[in-house]
UniProtKB/TrEMBL annotation, chain A:
InterPro entries cross-referenced by the UniProt entry: DExx_box_DNA_helicase_dom_sf, DNA_helicase_UvrD-like_C, DNA_helicase_UvrD/REP, P-loop_NTPase, UvrD-like_ATP-bd
SUPFAM superfamilies for the chain: P-loop containing nucleoside triphosphate hydrolases
A molecular function GO annotation: DNA binding
Protein name: DNA 3'-5' helicase
Lineage: Bacteria, Pseudomonadati, Pseudomonadota, Betaproteobacteria, Neisseriales
Automatic annotation (TrEMBL), chain B:
Keyword Hydrolase: yes
Listed InterPro entries: AAA_GajA/Old/RecF-like (IPR041685), Bact_Antivir_Def_Nuclease (IPR051396), P-loop_NTPase (IPR027417), TOPRIM_OLD (IPR034139)
Gene Ontology terms, MF aspect: endonuclease activity
Protein name: Putative ATP-dependent endonuclease of the OLD family
Tree of life domain: Bacteria
Domain Endonuclease GajA/Old nuclease/RecF-like AAA as annotated: residue spans: 1-387
SUPFAM superfamilies for the chain: P-loop containing nucleoside triphosphate hydrolases
Residue ranges of every copy of the OLD protein-like TOPRIM domain listed in the record: 435-502
Pfam family, one: AAA_15
Keywords assigned: Endonuclease, Hydrolase, Nuclease
Protein species of origin: Formivibrio citricus
CDD domains: TOPRIM_OLD
Length: 600, 713
């Protein structure tokens, strides 16, 4: 039966987008119900599949988003057995590398994906071979032409190239690939083996891309090759907001609909979601100033007329920032805003390090969800990370569906490793897991003991498996490093098992995050500091033709559009730049923007 | 899409066998125990949805027994599909999992493999061994249990698993403890993705050997009628069915209301109360009529009634003749297949095991002439030579057993269409068990066909059947049309061709004094001699490049060589029966005894032609006994065809010779007695063949078994 919905569930423009039969390019303004539209579109197309050999594929920016959408669709009562949803990396791995690796000599004999921690360690080690290069210079991504260095300092490129030559060699010697290489080999396979795109196009009825503005060229090309091979039988649904394209340094960019059409060789309808249900009119008016691509935004939320407070503080000194944050949080709480509806933002992690801890100290009545609040490695492809999700959640009715899915993933991983998973079901795995009872209070030690105990119960000798061994080492090394760093910063409680468990609980505290990290989220109150020229925009972007104005606008647009009700902006003084170059000035375009700010 | 190839490595009674299939109807023929059921089982493990679970439960008994120890070895069952295409949407998921990509992005074939192998741990341990470390290898192998094995399904593989070198490279060389340091091999292909279940993609129907059809009909699970009805009952119009349901309910009520029913009920209640007392009796008790009122259940109460042939009476299945029940069963299964077929799966497979069991020959022939659905591949196994005649030689696989080892042959592999046509026509015309034979003697006429089996039985004491030799009368000298079947690439069985060289036994050049009849006779001899010599050249040339076929020539003609071999008196004994006139009888006897080929040769041929060669052979056959001498070329043909002779067989033959040489009623000659004792020792394995062969010359002096023994390798 075809999936249906009521007028209350979707607005007219959302419904139109969902019902569109052909490929569609949907520019969604902030707060326009993008995820909701995507979710309903998937549910609708799943219900319309006329063959059990067809699939709907959805590509999300994060695993978390994929999980969330997956759960929502299941919540809508639609069968998801013919849905594949995940990141583009997982997609390439599952649908291209695993089945077709045998046609790519470099990975034909098997390969292992190294996680970000291992990659960091390896690059750090290689950086020592070149003077003046650190791991932070080592961003890179692939295009079909080869790899592109993220580092904007051209003078370092020769040395970086020497490092990367060694890096790729070492990975090849160990039959390892990193996340960028997943895309690289997937793209190579798609080009060298034309049947792959053809076959996948025949399997996929719809391919949906979320957050297209952060998609890299190589990713567009992989997807486009499949859509092109489908010759209008495989439909494409692209959704995102070009104004929020803030991952340019990683190669992400908002492709125009014309270029995408040319790449895919099929007509794609250009549509927009223009109704903002999130922010008040005052907020919309405020952040609309920062658009880089002219977009229509209509306030449509029930509280649009609410009189928002928008403040801009340029007088507070660096050392007083935290006191100011405490003041605003208290103020918001007094206004009746719930803690999980408050968000503290800054452009860089380094500004936030320690902030969470100090805020937690100053505001003991609140919980915080921020950097260093995840005390262990979160590498999604790591087997032990996947298992830790089961280890750190309790058997409870509201967690059951997720835990079953995680358990199935673990069983599939074991099967892929050729480990004797004879007849083991998700239920059995969870039952065995539930009967592991440990008194250990140290989080990492707990996980270590739990893993051992569970593996014994399952009769799996994981130590003799190279991959599981490597994953185990990687997981614990990087987790230990993380815990150690957080402890150094003073969060002694961070290593406790109770703290570990919070990671997989539903969010309950005040969010502390970077601007990049709150993509897609929304809060009643958004407080942003560190809005300084050199950070917003990043100093490396100041070398661009426009002096980084575009980048700064996009970041401010993202900050502004997160808020439902109140927005507090801070360009603090006296934050010192390195090399004795004085303090950072306020972000220029922000300082220049004339607005009737409120005083708080 | 259809199965084009099936490879079995180390599975049950196959060490390594490859079967090839064509679109349409295919036959697997073979004697009992040749592995027909195992081939079908292997296909089912991969493609039959109801059997897939079993593939995860392979165990020790599934390994080829000839391996000795199974530990460390792999079982590989590999299916190759043809006519797949990446362009077809319907096949996409299938191609995604199994399609083999070729240059230019073409996908034309797909592979699907079931691999049962030691888990990665064991494989890594083996890979880590130094080359030649037998002790290390054995230490690993000894500890392996079947729980250390895993089942793996892969697609896209390019390896030819039937190639011993490939197997050794991937699995290892256990004789020399050589193992690759790799544990992953791209030739094995890619693991089948979880999104694809090949068994669910295809429609697959298996019809078991019809052994106990009546009980199949009685079981709810196996009754084919129920399956058919179930597949239809989902489509019943509820409106149409509602009145029936109403009536069923009404009937139930009416039955329950019957006076007798009510009386019985109240009697039961009273008796219980009387026996157990009020306290311990059930509170409620009623008798209900249980006529089902749901479509599914009502349908299940339907039964098939059949009136056999032209009788007026329609009986239920168990009243039918066994043959009739089988026919009905088969028909229903075929209909089931047809229903499935209509649901448009990727491919349709129908496997039929030994349809001949209990089916009348004519029914079989008709049935298999007519079975054949477009777009469906049908594979049936048979040991019936009747069905094998109906089938096309191009789509035949022959299974043959040698000891414990079974092999698969494709009789038409690499043959030219014309050659296939010849063989096909021959097989169609002559009901022969040629394809089932363990080894073959091809002869050119009735005389050989009649006399050779008799001579072998009388002289060697074992029949051709016991020797596993099939004697095939080609009825002409067109041996090559049939012997072409026996070849390294086709049927790997030995084939001896017994033919006449037709060299003239007298000067074939006409002399002035020759009468007209002699001149004609000589002309015939000359022509035969020329064509015989030419035949020899052809057959020798063919044998030179084919180790499985060898020709054996009578110097002249069978009858003439029969006499020359030392059987003059046998023919003489038949003279009086052939000729009635005393003068002719005397002349014939004298000529036969003359020792001059020109005289006895012409006479024996005259007699044979006079009687007809076949009738003459039958006449001679009555006279054949253990003293009849087997002409040497026939003897050698038998030795070649049979191949190696076992100790038991040689013992049986020599025992027979001892028995026939033992003069009845008188004292056993001491030499024979000694030989007999030595023969017992040979049988027990105390002395070898060469010794017993040497001693036979003393124990059985001048016996015709001596040249036979010296022919043995």
């Amino acid at each position: 039966m075809t999936f249906v919905w009521t007028e209350k569930e979707l607005s007219a423009e959302q419904s139109d987008a969902v019902r569109e039969e052909r490929s569609i390019f949907l520019v969604a303004c902030p707060g326009s119900g993008k995820t909701r539209t995507l979710t309903y579109k998937i549910a609708y197309e799943l219900s319309r599949l006329d063959s059990n050999r067809k699939f709907v594929v959805a590509l999300t920016y994060t695993h978390r988003a994929a999980d969330e959408i997956h759960e929502r669709i299941e919540g809508l009562g639609v069968d998801t057995s013919q849905l594949w949803i995940g990141t583009i990396h997982s997609f390439c791995l599952e649908w291209i590398l695993k089945p077709y690796a045998i046609y790519e000599p470099a990975i034909a004999h098997g390969f292992r994906i190294i996680d970000s921690h291992e990659q960091e360690k390896l690059l750090e080690e290689l950086c020592r071979t070149q003077r003046g290069i650190t791991y932070w210079d080592c961003d890179y991504y692939f295009t079909d032409q080869g790899y592109v260095l993220g580092c904007r300092d051209q003078s370092k490129h020769a040395r970086l190239q020497a490092i990367f030559a060694l890096y790729f060699q070492q990975l090849a010697d160990n039959r390892q690939i990193d996340f960028e290489l997943i895309l690289y080999y997937a793209s190579r396979l798609i080009r060298s083996q034309p049947q792959i795109a053809k076959v996948l196009a025949n399997i996929f009825q719809w391919v949906l891309i979320d957050e297209y503005q952060d998609t890299k060229r190589i990713q567009y090309e992989i997807v486009a090759a499949i859509v092109r091979a489908g010759a209008e039988r495989t439909q494409l649904f692209v959704v995102g907001d070009p104004n929020q394209a803030i991952f340019g340094s990683l190669g992400g960019f908002a492709m125009s609909v014309t270029e995408l059409q040319r790449l895919c060789g099929v007509p794609i309808k250009d549509r927009a979601l223009t109704e903002n249900y999130r922010s008040t009119d005052r907020l919309i008016r405020y952040f609309s100033n920062f658009t880089v691509q002219a977009t229509v935004i209509h306030g449509a939320g029930p509280d649009r007329a609410f009189s928002s407070t928008i403040s801009y503080n340029t007088v507070v000194g660096r050392d007083e920032v935290e006191a100011e944050l405490v003041r605003i949080i208290r103020l918001s709480a007094a206004q009746g805003v719930r803690p999980e509806q408050i968000c503290v933002l800054a452009p860089w992690w380094i500004l936030l390090a320690g902030v969470t801890r100090r805020l937690a100290g100053a505001l003991p009545e609140f919980h915080f969800d921020g950097p260093g609040m995840v005390p262990f490695s979160r590498d999604q492809e790591n087997f032990w990370y996947r298992l830790s999700r089961i280890a750190l959640t309790q058997a409870s009715p509201d967690q059951h569906v997720r835990r079953m899915r995680w358990a199935n993933e673990v069983i599939r991983d074991l099967g892929n490793e050729g480990l004797n998973a004879r007849g083991m079901t998700a239920k059995q795995l969870l039952r065995e897991s539930n009967s592991v009872l440990l008194a250990e209070t140290d989080g990492l030690q707990y996980l270590r003991l739990y893993f051992d105990a569970l593996m014994v119960r399952l009769g799996i000798d994981w130590q003799s498996h190279r991959l599981l061994n490597e994953h185990h080492r990687a997981f614990f090394d990087s987790s230990a490093a993380k815990v150690e760093r957080l402890r150094r910063e003073g969060s002694s409680y961070i290593g406790e098992i109770d703290f570990f468990r919070k990671v997989f609980q539903h969010r309950s505290g005040i969010t502390v995050n970077t601007i990049h990290g709150v993509k897609g989220a929304e809060f009643d109150v958004v407080i942003a500091f560190g809005l300084l020229q050199g950070m917003v925009p990043h100093f490396s972007e100041e070398d661009e033709a426009d002096g980084g104005v575009t980048s700064a606008k996009k970041l401010l647009y993202v900050v502004g559009s997160r808020a439902r009700k109140h927005l507090y902006l801070i360009s603090e003084q006296q934050r010192r730049r390195g090399g004795g170059r004085g303090a950072y000035p306020s972000t220029e375009i922000l300082a220049e923007y004339v607005f009737d700010y409120d005083a708080v | 899409m259809h199965i084009s190839k099936l490879t079995l490595v180390n599975y049950r009674n196959f060490a390594n066998a490859t079967l090839r299939f064509k679109q349409g109807v295919n036959t697997i023929i073979g004697e009992n125990g040749a592995g027909k059921s195992n081939v079908l089982r292997a296909i089912r493990l991969m493609l039959d949805d109801s059997m897939v679970r079993a593939s995860y439960r392979l165990d020790e008994s599934d390994f080829y027994r000839g391996l000795g120890s199974w530990r460390g070895h792999w079982i590989i069952i590999s299916v190759e599909f043809d006519e797949v295409s990446a362009d077809e949407a319907m096949q996409a998921l299938f191609v995604h999992g199994t399609g083999v990509g070729q240059a230019g992005g073409v996908v034309a074939c797909a592979t699907y493999n079931l691999i049962f192998r030691p888990n990665k741990q064991i494989r890594m341990n083996l890979a880590a061994l130094q080359n030649g470390d037998m002790a290390g290898m054995n230490a690993i192998l000894d500890r392996i249990t079947i729980d250390d094995y895993e089942t793996l399904f892969t697609g896209k593989s390019t390896a030819d698993f039937s190639d011993q070198a490939v197997y050794q490279r991937i699995v290892g060389d256990f004789d020399n403890a050589l193992f690759s340091s790799e544990v992953e091999f791209l030739e094995l292909g890619a693991r089948i993705p979880g999104t694809l279940s090949v068994a669910k993609e295809v429609s697959f129907t298996f019809i078991q050997a019809l052994r106990d059809v009546v009980s199949e009909f009685h079981s709810n699970r196996t009754n084919p009628l129920l399956t058919l009805l179930k597949s239809k009952s989902g489509q019943i119009d509820p409106l149409q069915f509602q009145p029936i349901v109403e009536r069923a309910r009404q009937l139930n009520t009416e039955i329950e209301r019957l006076q007798d029913v009510q009386t019985v009920r109240s009697d039961i209640v009273q008796t219980i109360h009387g026996a157990a007392g009020q306290t311990y009796s059930p509170a409620l008790l009623s008798i209900k009529s249980d006529l089902p009122d749901e479509a599914d259940l009502l349908f299940q109460s339907l039964k098939l009634f059949v009136g056999e042939f032209d009788t007026e009476y329609e009986g239920s299945i168990h009243e039918l003749s066994l043959g009739g029940a089988n026919l009905i069963f088969l028909t229903l299964k075929l209909l089931e297949f047809k229903y499935q077929h209509e649901r448009q799966p990727l491919a349709n497979f129908l496997l039929i095991e030994e349809p001949e069991a209990h089916l009348h020959t004519h029914v079989q022939k008709t049935l298999f002439d007519r079975i054949g659905y477009a777009q469906a591949q049908i594979i049936y196994s048979t040991h019936s030579s009747h069905i094998s005649e109906v089938c096309n030689i191009k789509s035949v696989n022959i299974l043959g057993r040698t000891g414990n080892k079974c092999e698969a042959f494709q009789p038409s592999a690499s043959l030219e269409p014309e050659q296939i046509g010849n063989v096909q026509r021959y097989l169609d015309a002559v009901r022969s068990n040629l394809l089932f034979a363990k080894s073959v003697l091809l002869v050119e006429g009735d005389a050989e066909e009649i006399l050779i089996p008799l001579m072998v039985k009388q002289v060697l004491g074992v029949s051709l059947d016991e020797l596993g030799i099939s004697l095939i009368n080609i009825g002409s000298t067109g041996f090559s049309n049939v012997s072409v079947l026996f070849h390294d690439e086709r049927i790997r069985r030995r084939c001896s061709i017994i033919t006449d060289l037709d060299a003239a036994f007298m000067d074939p050049n006409p002399l002035p004094e020759d009468d007209a009849e002699t001149v004609a006779f000589k002309g015939k001899l000359l022509r035969a001699q020329v064509s015989g010599a030419a035949r020899r050249v052809t057959l020798d040339a063919e044998a030179a490049v084919n180790a499985w076929v060898r020709p054996f020539f009578a110097a002249h003609t069978f009858e003439v060589d029969f006499v020359a071999a030392g059987n003059v008196e046998k023919v003489v004994s038949s003279v009086n029966a052939v000729y009635s006139q005393a003068a002719t009888q005397a002349l014939s006897t004298a000529q036969l005894r003359s020792g001059d080929p020109a005289q006895y040769g012409r006479r024996v041929l005259t007699m044979a032609n006079h009687e007809g060669k076949g009738w003459f052979a039958i006449r001679l056959g009555k006279l054949v006994d253990h003293r009849t001498v087997i002409p040497s070329y026939i003897r050698q043909a038998i030795v070649f065809a049979h191949g190696s002779f076992s100790t038991q067989l040689i013992f049986n033959i020599l025992k027979h010779r001892v028995a026939v040489n033992n003069p009845a009623g008188s004292v056993v000659p001491p030499a024979l007695q000694t030989f007999w004792e030595r023969l017992m020792q040979y049988h027990a394995g105390a002395i070898d063949f060469h010794t017993i062969r040497a001693e036979a010359a003393i124990g059985l002096p001048n016996d015709q078994i001596l040249p036979f023994l010296s022919d043995l390798p």
